[in-house]
Amino acid sequence: LRTAAGRLHEDRTSAAAAHADQREQMRRLMTGFLERWDTLTILPDPDESVAEFEGILVALETNGLHELESEWRDSLLKLSGN
């Protein structure tokens, strides 16, 4: 039982540390996004704002922004070559 309790304690400690690390990485990602889009009033809080950030992601994917960016880049390269 002591061995099992010790392992359980180590696993819980490890899981809590991993959770805290992932939460901090998410907060940094949100902060970086908000620095580029300073007109948004969302807080970079992984616990409170995930749904709002997911909504933005869905809107960007729906509008095909990544495809437009690729087309813009190709057009810019072509124009700069001319």
Oligomer: single chain
> Which segments are poorly predicted (pLDDT under 50) over 5 or more consecutive residues?
none
What distance lies between the first and last C-alpha atoms, to the nearest angstrom? 75 Å
What is the helix fraction of residues, given as a range? over 70%
Number of helices: 3
Counting DSSP E segments of at least 2 residues, the number of strands comes to: 0
Morphology call? elongated
Task: Tell me the count of domains.
Answer: 1
**Category from helices, strands and their pairing:** mainly alpha
Question: Which sequence of SSEs, written as H and E, runs from N to C?
Answer: HHH
Largest sheet: none
Average pLDDT across residues?
Answer: 90
Q: How large is the share of residues in beta strands?
A: under 5%
Radius of gyration: 21 Å
Give the topology, please.
Blueprint (H helix, E strand, L loop, with lengths): L1 H35 L13 H14 L1 H17 L1
